[in-house]
Automatic annotation (TrEMBL):
The gene is MED17. It is found in: Nucleus. This is Mediator of RNA polymerase II transcription subunit 17. Residues 78-109 form a coiled coil. One of its GO terms (cellular component) is core mediator complex. Component of the Mediator complex, a coactivator involved in the regulated transcription of nearly all RNA polymerase II-dependent genes. Mediator functions as a bridge to convey information from gene-specific regulatory proteins to the basal RNA polymerase II transcription machinery. Mediator is recruited to promoters by direct interactions with regulatory proteins and serves as a scaffold for the assembly of a functional preinitiation complex with RNA polymerase II and the general transcription factors. It comes from Lipomyces starkeyi NRRL Y-11557.
Length: 439
């Protein structure tokens, strides 16, 4: 070993084994070499600084322990001391075996490192490399088969063409998306223009437009019903003005689309049975050209529906006069010389109802149909006037009108039944007068 002087800052570690304690449990209190060597390296640094001379000086500098004459030992103490000595010898042998194993591992690692360095040197200087190479490596690995070189990193050069390419591609994609968006917005603007032009036509025609807020729609709507005119019908007549994919205005009414119109037929007895001699129904165009015509058609059909509803309701009031409601869709009014049938028919059946378009009974049917529409309008006006009138003070006595009064059928039935009764009465009076004159 090489010698080196020790400074005052060096740390000394005792190499003497720890003293054996009287307690046998302390016999294995010291650690093995795998634990002691890292502690020595941490306290004293590398083993290259530890020399034989430094260790000898450290031992000489330590004071010799004072050895007292051993007292008289009993057989029990002698037996315990012998046991501790045997345990110490066993621990010492184990520590020496660990030290030999660690030294062998260190020698093996050093030899492997030497072979690795020798193999690297052999690629540049074969003679110098093979001198320190182990025979095992020479026999299994060719000389100069392992080389090493220094990697030099190339200087970073920014390629502007790549940056410009990515930027050009991004700008081109953005321009294409903007062009498509502009084209789509232009098409949408044309569709919106067509839609609002049709809405403007409806507004100019005098229809009441309003903003609709419904669960499935928020937009423009129109009120085509008769609630503002005094109608108390359950259907208020509200439609939404929607736009389809083609930009056209679509009028969507609430509920199912109505297709029924009121028909009045005159039936007279013939060969013991009653046959239709005249019929009339309001002619409503089936085909609609625009939103304005759709609203007009919806308003007319709503009026027809409400009219038949009121007529069917009043049949219960005039039941004593023979007015009946058959199957819920046909009202029969019997008169002395004829019968009046009021029912609803589909729009497609209007042409068949116009086959009997001549004759006096057809004129009577038309007059009755028009009279029914006028009487419903009169009922609306009456309801509107009653709703606008100022209520009387509480406690004021008024003549309450009959709630069950018929406003549509009763005036019609009365006016149609009076002339035949008048003729019969005049005939009876003339017969009585003639009989009295003869006497």
């Amino acid at each position: 070993m090489s010698t080196s002087s020790l400074t005052g800052d060096d740390i000394f570690v005792s190499l003497e084994p720890p003293p054996l304690e009287e307690d046998p449990s302390h016999a294995r209190s010291f650690r093995n070499l795998s634990q002691i060597i890292p502690q020595i390296a941490l306290e004293r640094g590398s083993f290259i600084n530890i020399t034989e001379d430094s260790l000898r000086k450290e031992l000489e500098a330590r004071p010799s322990p004072h050895v007292e004459s051993p007292p008289d030992e009993t057989p029990t103490k002698l037996k315990q001391s012998a046991t501790n000595l045997a345990q110490f010898e066993e621990d010492f042998n184990n520590a020496r075996a660990d030290l030999n194993r660690l030294i062998s591992a260190a020698q093996n690692e050093a030899a492997i490192s030497l072979d690795f360095v020798s193999l690297l040197i052999s690629s540049v200087r074969p003679a110098a490399g093979t001198t320190s190479m182990s025979p095992h490596l020479k026999s299994h690995v060719p000389v100069g088969s392992l080389g090493a070189d220094r990697i030099k990193s190339l200087p970073y050069v920014e390629d502007m063409s790549v940056c410009l390419g990515w930027k050009t591609q991004a700008v081109s994609a953005a321009s294409e998306r903007l062009a498509k968006a502009a084209e789509r917005l232009a098409e949408e603007a044309v569709l919106e223009k067509n839609y609002w032009e049709q809405v403007e036509k409806i507004a100019v025609s005098g229809e009441v437009l309003s903003k609709m807020r419904m669960p499935d729609y928020r937009g423009m709507g129109v009120r085509y019903g008769f609630a503002d005119a005094g109608s108390t019908y359950k259907e208020k007549g509200i439609a939404t003005l929607r736009r389809n994919v083609e930009g056209k205005l679509v009028v969507k009414t609430e509920g199912e689309k109505r297709t029924k119109v009121l028909s009045v037929a005159i039936m007279r007895p013939l060969h013991g049975d009653y046959v239709i001699t005249g019929q009339y129904a309001l002619k409503i165009n089936i085909e609609t050209r625009d939103g304005k015509s759709e609203i007009k058609q919806a308003r007319d059909l709503l009026f027809e529906d409400e009219l038949f509803f009121e007529i069917a309701r009043e049949t219960r009031i005039l039941g004593s006069q023979g007015v009946t409601l058959d199957f819920g869709n046909k009202v029969m009014i019997p008169l002395p010389a004829l019968r009046i049938v009021i029912e609803t028919i589909d729009l497609e059946d209007q042409e068949s109802s116009m086959e009997l378009d001549s004759g006096p009974d057809r004129v009577i049917a038309e007059a009755i149909n028009v009279a029914l529409h006028l009487l419903l309008s009169k009922l609306h006006r009456k309801n509107l006037k009653a709703g606008r009138s100022i209520p009387l003070p509480l406690g004021t006595r008024t003549n309450t009108p009959d709630i069950g009064k018929s406003e549509i059928l009763e005036p019609l039935v009365s006016s149609l039944a009076v002339p035949p009764i008048k003729d019969s009465l005049m005939t009876l009076i003339m017969d009585l007068t003639s009989a009295l004159k003869e006497k």
